[in-house]
Amino acid sequence: HHNKRRPVYWWNEEISTLRKLCHSARRRLQRSRDETNENRLREELKSHKKLLKSAITRSKKVCFEKLCEEANIDPWGTAYKICMSRFKNKQQQPKDAAFMGKVVETLFPKHDRISYAKRRNESAESPPLVTEDELLAIAKEIKNAKAPGLDGIPNRALKEAISLKPRVFAEMYNACLKEEVFPDPWKVQRLVLLPKPKKPPEEPSSY
Fold this sequence. Notes:
7 helices, flat
């Protein structure tokens, strides 16, 4: 008895049904002996394959976006398991807080804090301000499938907000440039440690 192969994360009932239709259409074509009938069956198979390909592409896109959203909530969930399944020597994520701290210190060593004196010369050249056109152009380049930040706002929503109110965003960014102040939450990120393949898990440099 062979274990049934586990379906990929984007597999669904629609794809399963379309795949069966493709197989049936292929068998009918292979068994056909009538040239006229073969042409019809060939077109039928082509149509089923096109529908199957479209369904797979659509499902992959939707499921990938969901995975990105889930990864922002639970970094060790399905997305992490799928990524780690690609490694031949599967290693566990470090759990010990002290060791994880050591890994972070190794990967991101601390440096002396640098204090930048505020410009006194009023004639000094100011940084170029952000324009609404620039924001709209950048927003179009943002990928919907990318995982959102710690605020949990999906990129799709961010793009929509910028397209509707570009002036609000431009004024906010320009205020940051003029005041030389950037909100601390913008500087916070979530760090996910992924073990390198074939590296000793007890070494901080293995992540």
